[in-house]
TrEMBL record:
One of its GO terms (cellular component) is plasma membrane. InterPro entries: YciB. The lineage of its organism: Bacteria, Pseudomonadati, Pseudomonadota, Gammaproteobacteria, Methylococcales. It comes from the Bacteria. Belongs to the YciB family. Keywords: Cell inner membrane, Cell membrane, Membrane, Transmembrane, Transmembrane helix. This is Inner membrane-spanning protein YciB. It comes from Candidatus Methylumidiphilus alinenensis. The gene is yciB.
Length: 181
C-alpha cells in the first residue's frame, strides 16, 4: 500500500499526460504531490523526507515547466531527485553514525555495520544509476517514451531492485529459533 501511495503522483501524471498532455500532467503532478504530503501529515503528524524533497523539486521544476512552457524541466525532476538521494545515502556512509538505510530500516532489522554499509552503498548506486538512465531517456527519446519509462521503467527497475535487496537481506537475517516442547 505504501508503494502505491508513494507512486500515486506518478500514476496521476501518466494518466493526465495521456489524456491532456505534458503541461496539464505537470500541474496534476504538482497538486498530487501537495496532497500526498498533506495526507501523510494528517495521518502521521509528521513529514517524510522523501515526500518533502520530491515536493520541493516538483514545485521548482514543474513550476519552471509551466511558467516557461518548456517540458525539459519536468523531465529533469527524476534525475535530480534520484541523484540527491544518491548523494544523501553516500554521505551517510561517513556522517551521522548510521547509514541512511539503517536509519530507515534499523528499527525492524538487526544486522552488522558492514551489511548496513553494503546495503546503503547498493541503494546509492541504484539512485545514481536510475537518475542516469532517466537522463539518457529524456535526452535521446520522445516525450511519449520518457513518460512511459517514468511510470513503467522506473517502477519496474525499482521493483526488481527491491526484490534483489530482499534476497540479499534474507541471507543476512538471523534465523529464528523456536523452542520445541
Amino acid at each position: 500500500m505504501k508503494l502505491l501511495f508513494d507512486f500515486f503522483p506518478i500514476l496521476l501524471f501518466f494518466i493526465a499526460y495521456k489524456v491532456f498532455g505534458i503541461y496539464v500532467a505537470t500541474a496534476v503532478a504538482i497538486v498530487a504531490s501537495i496532497i500526498q504530503v498533506l495526507l501523510y501529515w494528517l495521518k502521521t503528524r509528521k513529514f517524510e523526507t522523501m515526500h518533502l524533497v520530491t515536493l520541493l523539486i516538483i514545485l521548482v521544476f514543474g513550476g519552471l515547466t509551466l511558467y516557461l512552457q518548456d517540458e525539459q524541466f519536468i523531465k529533469w525532476k527524476p534525475t535530480v531527485v534520484n541523484w540527491l538521494f544518491g548523494f544523501a545515502f553516500l554521505a551517510s556512509q561517513w556522517l551521522g553514525g548510521k547509514t541512511m538505510i539503517e536509519r530507515m530500516m534499523g528499527a525492524n532489522l538487526v544486522m552488522p555495520p558492514a551489511i548496513w554499509r553494503t546495503l546503503n552503498l547498493s541503494w546509492t548506486l541504484f539512485f545514481f544509476l536510475i537518475g542516469g538512465i532517466n537522463y539518457y531517456v529524456m535526452s535521446y527519446f520522445t516525450t511519449d517514451t520518457w513518460v512511459n519509462f517514468k511510470l513503467f521503467g522506473m517502477l519496474g527497475l525499482t521493483f526488481v531492485f527491491v526484490l534483489l535487496q530482499s534476497v540479499f537481506l534474507s541471507r543476512h537475517l538471523p534465523e529464528s529459533t523456536t523452542e520445541e516442547e
